[in-house]
Amino acid sequence: MAVNVTEGNSVSGDTVKFSSYALHKCLIGFGAINGVLNAGIFWLMHGGDVTMQFDLVSIVADLVITGLILGAILFACAVPLTKKDMRAGAFIAPETFGGVASIVPRSYGAAMLVVGVVAGAFMGLLGVVAAFALSAPLPMVAMMVLKGCACAFGGAAAGYLSLVFTTRSFGGE
């Protein structure tokens, strides 16, 4: 029996395509949940001073460092969970991966590093665009929203690369 990914861990016997599995996991599990958690952590860290302002450098530095950490931690969590879902037959692995999947090494440590760097670079780029679009410096609440959104997008990207690594590396088990 397979794990039905649309209903969490309930056993239903359904197997879905990899694209459907990845979309659900990346948008909700790795994206939205990461965004909410990181925005909440940001509020707990900076909520005492709502007059705080964040300039371009502090926005980008905060998002890049967060992305590096988020990507590595998410990779470490996603790989064993995806292996478990693969063994349960939750999704049908594709024959090949194209495009961005080619940047993910087959070595666990190297892949974790690449996923962290990609998430950090992606989130830093989002920070630069947002800082110019929103006319930095940003107030604390705007930075909290930006960090939540950037973590959602960075988490989704890191999650997808983690799924690709796991499926490609452990698909034959």
Automatic annotation (TrEMBL):
Domain of life: Bacteria
Transmembrane domains' residue ranges: 26-45, 57-81, 110-134, 140-165
Keyword terms of this UniProt record: Membrane, Transmembrane, Transmembrane helix
Protein name stated in the entry: Uncharacterized protein
Organism: Paraeggerthella hongkongensis
